[in-house]
Backbone:
């Protein structure tokens, strides 16, 4: 076991920190926070002029797509180095990694043509995906999805509705999971398509969340992402948009979800408020009262800090599996239980430490840290719901990790409809 | 960075597990609960042949000079088998002698430890149960070439089986670290009397009274009155290795519950098919994994010579609560059979529960973490070292 980073990796971390200290100016933060509709702070969906320039600077240093092959626009670097860059940027609310981008799945399952078409442009930020998985009647039970893709000559024709297609209004493509066979058990009739958003018949309608407060400060969990519902009405796409083989989309999609869970961003959104509250407690006094002297607060802060370390270490373990060629049985799911639930516990505990100040939103007189703790209380639990709820993750740990049997269920539909 | 076990580490774990599964059945564990000596000398010698006692000791004295991470793997397996061995006390005292004693002191003690001829222990806690140095009231007064020790130590492991004991004494007036000395004491020295304690784990702890016990002054480890940091390092090593032992026992305990839930049928299906049971099992494994990650990070930092006190406290505070919760849930999944004396599960439950009470409560370890986080200047960043704050 080795919990350390190489001197080169440590040097890179310092370089990234220095870069952020120099380039993340108050003006850029203001631009980021001023964008109220789906800014999603990444290269592809953060189109303020200052943000665009910032990403040009990041790209110039070769920090995008580090772990991807050179032939597809990457740096042939290792995943741990990629992680270090992601972690430092995620800390300030900027996503530079390709986690959740569809790129890992395309690299693993795509044709040579697809790899060349997508990966360089995902790295450069020219392309981005919205995930088209969830449906009105298929969330945790994703395999029950009903969006249909029917083969018609060299094309597929898609009809259906997808929910929570975050950033679909700014994405260039949707990473779509659709049913291609209704006569087989539900997991066996699913395929993945890489569908351009400008295909006729595809419409996007915003869904506003409680995290999308117009003044949600940078760093609010999911405050930055506008989500949507997306409708497919006779959307015709060529068969070359199919990722992997027809009817094998469940495997491709599951692998993509596993890779999507790995990375700095997910754990950092769960633990960043721990740092904030410690630093707040250290420096704030109210007349004669200092929260730093309250034994209950001190005990709770230490408890949260320990939990946060477990989040960090579970992420490092997942990174180790990715980098050193292992395969996940339950470790990704374990991380996806622990970190989001910690995020909720810490958000709730912090509001108890702040008392009535905890309710003040950004812009309010007396707001603490731009109201981040209040904004975050509305977003923290979402992390335990999306991309596989913590309950579904527990099922995975129990069944895949521990080999416990599946439950008998009454009236379980065997086919997909 | 690679948090997965290397092939060599896996091999070490595998060998240790196979050895203890063959050599340490639960019949032996039960027998030692009522045995006056409390450990099987034959097994102790075999573990020495495998190199366990000397694993992290210097090669000069016959040891293997391997990292503490390796010793952690061994302690996990010892915990898994709930093996009644005086290993924790022996290696913790021996590591302290290796790092802080003079060459003559090392030469006198360590080769015997490596060979399996010598059992060591250490004594810190007194009447005041808190896990902090200002509770030490035992006095050691210089008298020519000797020290004269007076005081009472509680909760000393395997003292009657041990040949030597490292005793934390106050050699000068003071509180906290000030005036602390660590003294190597022959357990058979005149003036020592012991009273066995009857414990939940049915292990061999005792109260030790020192009544004008004369010890050569040459037996002080480090400089007289400057033993505070030595004691702190000793306690940190003891604590993190106890975490490893707890986690090994807890994982085995959880595995027993998970296996049981696969074949215990109720309502027409195995109870392990019920989500209420599955989700508890999932949590059990996630908690144990979390404890392991915290524990091995602390051990790894020690191996690198980095400050690791906060990491140790993170591990122990977490293990105290999560390991206890796991063994409790495991009892619950087993239902009535779980608390039958003839069923083995309680061997783990009683030990894990007892170990959670020792070497610092959750509150104390969290207080130490809070002190470092909150009472230090500057801001904290997760994943970067917390500022070192001198113990109070």
Residues:
């Amino acid at each position: 076991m080795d919990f350390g980073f190489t001197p080169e990796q440590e040097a890179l971390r310092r370089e990234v920190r220095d870069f952020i200290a120099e380039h993340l100016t108050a003006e850029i933060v203001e631009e980021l926070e001023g964008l109220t509709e789906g800014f999603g702070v990444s290269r592809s969906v953060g189109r303020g002029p200052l943000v665009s320039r910032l990403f040009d600077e990041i790209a110039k240093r070769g920090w995008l797509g580090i772990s991807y092959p050179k032939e597809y626009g990457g740096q042939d670097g290792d995943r741990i180095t990629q992680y270090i860059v992601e972690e430092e940027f995620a800390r300030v609310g900027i996503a530079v990694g390709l986690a959740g981008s569809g790129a890992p799945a395309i690299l693993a399952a795509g044709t040579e043509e697809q790899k060349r078409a997508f990966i360089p442009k995902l790295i450069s930020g020219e392309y981005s995906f919205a995930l088209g998985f969830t449906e009105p009647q298929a969330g945790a039970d994703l395999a029950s999805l009903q969006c249909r893709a029917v083969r018609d000559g060299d094309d597929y024709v898609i009809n259906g509705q997808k929910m929570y297609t975050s950033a679909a209004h700014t994405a260039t493509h949707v990473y779509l999971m659709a049913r291609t066979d209704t006569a087989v058990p539900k997991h066996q009739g699913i395929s993945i398509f890489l569908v351009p958003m400008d295909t006729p018949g595809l419409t996007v309608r915003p869904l506003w969340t409680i995290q999308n407060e117009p003044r949600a400060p940078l760093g609010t969990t999911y405050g930055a992402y506008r989500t949507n519902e997306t409708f497919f009405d006779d959307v015709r796409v060529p068969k070359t948009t199919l990722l992997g083989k027809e009817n094998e989309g469940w495997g491709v999609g599951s692998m993509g979800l596993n890779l999507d869970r790995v990375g700095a961003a997910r754990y950092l959104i769960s633990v960043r408020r721990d740092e904030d509250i410690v630093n707040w407690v250290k420096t704030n006094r109210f007349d004669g009262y200092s929260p730093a002297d309250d034994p209950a607060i001190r005990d709770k802060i230490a408890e949260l800090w320990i939990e946060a370390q477990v989040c960090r270490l579970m992420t490092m373990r997942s990174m180790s599996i990715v980098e050193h060629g292992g395969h996940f049985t339950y470790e990704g799911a374990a991380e996806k239980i622990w970190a989001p639930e910690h995020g909720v516990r810490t958000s709730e505990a912090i509001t108890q430490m702040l008392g009535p100040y905890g309710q003040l939103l950004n812009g309010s007189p007396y707001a603490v840290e731009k109201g981040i703790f209040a904004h975050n209380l509305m977003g923290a639990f979402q992390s335990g719901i999306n991309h596989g709820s913590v309950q579904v993750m527990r099922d995975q740990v129990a069944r895949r990790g521990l080999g416990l049997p599946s439950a008998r269920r009454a009236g379980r539909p065997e086919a997909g409809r | 960075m690679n948090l997965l076990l290397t092939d060599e580490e896996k091999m070490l774990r595998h060998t240790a597990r196979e050895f203890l599964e063959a050599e340490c059945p639960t019949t032996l564990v039960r027998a030692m609960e009522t045995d006056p000596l409390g450990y099987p000398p034959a097994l102790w010698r075999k573990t020495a042949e495998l190199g366990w006692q000397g694993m992290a000791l210097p090669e000069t004295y016959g040891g293997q000079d391997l990292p503490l991470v390796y010793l952690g793997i061994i302690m996990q397996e010892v915990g898994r088998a709930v093996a009644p061995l005086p290993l924790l006390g022996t290696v913790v005292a021996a590591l302290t002698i290796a790092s802080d004693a003079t060459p003559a002191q090392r030469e006198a003690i360590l080769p015997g430890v490596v060979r399996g001829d010598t059992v060591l222990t250490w004594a810190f806690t007194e009447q005041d149960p808190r896990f902090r140095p200002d509770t030490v009231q035992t006095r050691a007064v210089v008298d020519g070439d000797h020290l004269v020790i007076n005081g009472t130590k509680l909760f000393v492991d395997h003292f009657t089986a041990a040949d030597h004991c490292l005793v934390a004494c106050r050699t000068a007036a003071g509180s906290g670290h000030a005036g602390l000395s660590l003294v190597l004491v022959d357990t058979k020295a005149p003036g020592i009397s012991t009273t066995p304690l009857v414990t939940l784990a049915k292990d061999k702890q005792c109260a030790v009274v020192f009544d004008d016990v004369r010890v050569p002054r040459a037996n002080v480890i480090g400089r007289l009155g400057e033993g505070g940091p030595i004691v702190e390092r000793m306690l940190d090593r003891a604590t993190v290795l106890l975490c490893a032992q707890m986690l090994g026992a807890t994982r085995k305990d959880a595995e027993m519950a998970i296996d049981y839930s696969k074949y215990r049928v109720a309502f027409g299906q195995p109870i392990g098919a019920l989500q209420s049971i599955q989700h508890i099992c999932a949590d059990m494994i996630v908690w144990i994994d979390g404890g392991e990650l915290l524990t091995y990070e602390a051990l790894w930092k020690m191996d690198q010579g980095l400050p690791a006190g906060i990491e140790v406290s993170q591990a122990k505070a977490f293990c105290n609560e999560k390991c206890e919760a796991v063994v409790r849930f495991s009892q619950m999944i087993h239902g009535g059979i779980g608390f039958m004396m003839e069923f083995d599960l309680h061997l783990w439950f009683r030990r894990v529960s007892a170990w959670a009470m020792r070497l610092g409560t959750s509150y104390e370890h969290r207080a130490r973490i809070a002190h470092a986080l909150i009472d230090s200047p500057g801001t904290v960043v997760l994943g970067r070292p917390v500022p070192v704050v001198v113990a109070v």
